[in-house]
Amino acid sequence: MDPDGQQLGIKPLPEALAIARQLDLDLVEVAPLANPPVCRIMDYGKFKFDAAQKARESRRKTVSVGIKEMKYRPKIGPGDFDTKTRQVRKFLNDGHKVKVTIMFRGREVFHPELGKKILDRVAEHVDGTARVESEPRLDGRNMVMVLAPDKRAKQSAAARAAHDDHPDAGPATRTQNETGLGAGSPAAGPGAAEASGAPAVAADPAGEGR
Questions:
Q1: Residues near 2 by Cβ (< 8 Å), separated by ≥ 6?
Q2: Residue 137: what are its φ and ψ, rounded to 5°?
Q3: How confident is the model at residue 47 (pLDDT cuts 50, 70, 90)?
Q4: Is 23 among the domain residues?
Q5: More reliable by pLDDT, 61 or 89
Q6: Structural domain of 98
Q7: What is the pLDDT of residue 120?
Q8: Do 94 and 33 sit in the same domain of this protein?
Q9: Are residues 155 and 80 in the same domain?
């Protein structure tokens, strides 16, 4: 094949090399297992450079999904807890699993319930984003829990958020007619006095009272 991919037909090797030299290019075997083998005239240096660029771009676009770790202390303050938990949520949203580790110091290891309480708070804060893949357990002087992204939970949370943004309409408010204050209500008609029990007074057609 020539540099544009056009077939040149079956050529003896010396003739194919001569054609490549005339174009100041290389003769590269691209399908050695074919019968006969297929060669292409090209700039081999440029070909290798373009292939390396494509491979680099492909690696850049590939998301590396692994296990991230976030460490807490049993006596962690509210500010640090919120900061670390926001990062945990970010890891989960990026598709990573997260290993949450409680580090005990000294005699804190004799109070694992403190670490369990922290892990339960973390799981509660990421509810709707993740699920607990590995329940809290002691690992030496640490307590660990593994969280994994949960697509179903995220979809359910999104549905709940949409429902909260557009709740169903509540009971309709009473109209003026229903409250008896409208112009078309019975109180405004000729029979209002009868309905209220007051004596009715007939109008004088001649306009003269007697």
A1: 8, 19, 40, 41
A2: -150, 150
A3: confident
A4: yes
A5: 89
A6: 67-163
A7: 93
A8: no
A9: yes
